[in-house]
Amino acid sequence: MILSTNKNNPNALKLVIGGEISGNSVEIRIITTNESTLSRLPTLQLPTGITLISSNAALQYLLPGNEQDLENKWLEWDSTQLQPAIASYGNSGALDTSHKPRIWSLLSQLNSELKTKKYLITPDTHTSADIAIFCTLWCTICSTEVSAEITKEFPHVDKWLENISILPHVQQSLSKFPLENGFKAISSLNSSSWFPMNSYTGIRQKTAALEPSSPTKEPEAITKQELETSKKNWSTPLHPSIKPPTYPVLPRKNERNILITSALPYVNNVPHLGNIIGCVLSADVFARYCRQRDYNTLYISGTDEYGTATEAKALEENMTPQEICDKFFDIHNDIYRWFNIGFDYFGRTTTPEQTEIVQESFLRIKSQGYIITESVDQLLCQNCNRFLADRFVEGTCPGCKYEDARGDQCDGCGHLVNATELINPRCKVCSKTPVIKASTQFFLDLPKIQPKLKEWASKAEKNWSNVARAVTRPWLRDGLKPRCITRDLKWGIPVPIDEFKDKVFYVWFDAPLGYVSITKRYTQEYEKWWKPSEGTDVNLYQFMAKDNVPFHAIMFPATLLAANEGHTLVKHIMATEYLNYEDTKFSKSRGIGVFGTDARETGIPADVWRFYLTYIRPENQDSNFNWVDLATKNNSELLNNFGNFVNRALTFAVKNFEGKVPEMELREEDHQVLVLVQRELSHYIVAMEQGKFRDGVRHLLGISKHGNQYMQAQQPWVMVKGKEVKTAGTVIGVCCNISCLLSALLGPFMPDTSRELRKQLGLDGSTYGYIPEKVSILLSPGHKLGEPTPLFSKIEEAVVEELRSKYGGKQDNGTNGGKTEGSVEELQGQIAAQGLKVRELKSKTDKSVWQPEVQILLKLKEQLAKITETSIITVNTATIGEKNKENGPVQNGKIDIPALEAAIAKQGLVVRELKANSEKSVWQPELNILLKLKKELSDATGVITPNAVDKKSKKKK
């Protein structure tokens, strides 16, 4: 067997060791970078003539194991997580400490695995996984200045590495393939193309025709057909341009018409990052993508302004409801403009158009027989001469006798209550005692509509996100009930029936029709979108968080089906889970989290916010905003990967080719990188079409990574100094064209940066590039480039810590008896608002939706309990146990509660990351540590924390 490799390559050492263990003779051939094509090293040529181009696949060939699934898992972990992290960590002989948290998290995973056993797979032999991970670690960071830290913090990893390093097979291999550990090895890892096991592994025949090593969903190796297609596409370039915008945008026959809405944000608060990515930003990313694909696209949204919450906020701020709406509409509008949210029209629901459409829709549905009336008992304040909504009633809880229970929930015991059940109820406005009085309300007869709705949903849901389907199915499965659509309130759209003139429509019935009225505000030809003529197809995409799914999957479609006027129904519900803030809940009153008005103050560009929020978009499960991770993604993915590639390519062209795209004569190796780019482009388009924007970002970054690897392998700066100037020009010309493609693919995520890159490419910076399906020449030889400048700047660690502290909540400094002035009142307000949210969700959704909100409510109550005590609690350390001296901050017989809470937050981040990337055997030990920390906090404060309760007791309860 012939092993071809560059010097100091840890991936080559693993194959030498594999050959020693298996008894296979391996001939080592050292290749300089210039001799390689894509520097896809190491490669292993078998006696049959087949060449294995993935080091981990070759290692498995040499050391086939019995536990194939486990080996695959750890080999993939090595190639897709550990090696990329280390390659980014060591840069030009120095450590980039912004990547350290990622490295330490991965080492923590490995340490946890080795804590319970001295091996990864089996005790009898060292498998391919053991050898691969050993070489990756032992040759690189374990031979740098952080080796002492690794020994101290990860003792099980350290001992495991030592045991493998003294094996005779390893020592013999090192004598055959001596290498210089540390930064030299990391540099070799960077300059060679290590490929993820499930991405680019494969075999190469002597004829250079590549065949896949195993059947997968797509060929893993570059095939002859792919190369031929690449050559054809490149030689017959297409230069499509985006059609100029028209006003108004109207649907056209025989075209792809895309109507996009984002859930109307409510106007009684300032949106936080979770609100922004959950609806308006996600919708904007998709709208920009559609426009760059030249689809006929309209994106509308606006503020939801009627309802009890607006009245309550107006009362709190001593303003009229309309004044509150005007105030917060401006706040929302300014925030979205700063985030570059490109609505075609951003409206509001307090308009004549909204009143007209809601009233007309109601009368139409009533005439179709889908409206019924029922009598409802409500509390009437005779002094105020108004029926009281739940949040305007207070009284004594019928259960725990807490005296300040609200009309929807008791904050004393946490139970839901009905306003009419309160003991000694009182009006929140005047404190007078209300009386119970029956009130007749209109209901939408959902049971009557259900057959039509169920038939429609069974066909439509295939285009919905997973969370949208999960939330909707229980509603239809369990059977729908009549839904009240009117209220005895002042602030809302009046019911157009004389005997009901003192009532208004309930906000859930009113708000979704806002999509129609806002479209009408945009154009009087709105019905072309909402009641399209025959032959005109309109695809409606709606973006929201999961708590809004019932309104868009059940209520709004039921309303339109009942009207029976051929309305456009939603085809794609693109719902997300929730975004949390550093393991906790966003809270404006407590200063926790970044809200829309804060983002600009951080000094971080809007495009970086857009990129990171999309990168962590909670598509399949709740995700977490983290400052360290934000800085890491900015510094590694944007600055060192994307920005580094395009800046190197354009700068080189300016300095060496008179600022023009050089002449190009593409070779086989040039088309090989274009094939890899084509794969990423194809995956990018599929992901974007399906609303999987996280994958879209990753495929975009994958293209720039291929570009970096290609440029590093070809080394045009060496070629240009010798006799290979023409070849260097080809390499740079290809890189400039890849950069041009990237400028278009970046547009949906980072529009300002996309325009800036296009200017540097010598293109019109006022427009975005068309997103093509094929990789072809976009910049012809001789095209004049602009002036290249860095696109991104580094986020320093000191800035991260400053921002983390600023937005981490109001800290207790021990003054004022351990209380922060106003915090009790603020928390009580948060508890009240969260309680209302829980009650509403419980009445409308299933447990999977409202249960997380219950946990948030419990946490708020715990925080309220904590701040009524001193933050540093004196305890007998003997009663807590010696373990607290390790995990719990104990000083002079005292426990530092804030420090312990910080430790819990940090450990929670470790657990969540492990759960996302590994099996239970890896994350369970770390979860146990987290539970112990929470138990210590519970013992110290006397407050029971979630998950600190004994599991058996919880089950019994």
UniProtKB/TrEMBL annotation:
List the gene name: MetRS
Protein name from the UniProt record: Methionine--tRNA ligase, cytoplasmic
Which InterPro entries does the record cross-reference, listed alphabetically? aa-tRNA-synth_I_CS, Anticodon_Met, Glutathione-S-Trfase_C-like, Glutathione-S-Trfase_C_sf, GST_C, Met-tRNA_ligase_1, Met-tRNA_synth, Methionyl/Leucyl_tRNA_Synth
GO annotation, cellular component aspect: aminoacyl-tRNA synthetase multienzyme complex; cytosol
Where do the GST C-terminal domain residues begin and end? 64-183
In its UniProt record, which GO terms are filed under biological process? methionyl-tRNA aminoacylation
Q: Which HAMAP family match?
A: Met_tRNA_synth_type1
- What family, per the record? Belongs to the class-I aminoacyl-tRNA synthetase family.
Q: Where are the transmembrane segments?
A: none
Q: Where is the WHEP-TRS domain?
A: 823-878, 896-951
Enzyme Commission number(s) of this protein: 6.1.1.10
Q: Name one Pfam family in it.
A: WHEP-TRS
Where the protein is mainly located, per its record? cytoplasm
A molecular function (GO) held by this record is:
methionine-tRNA ligase activity
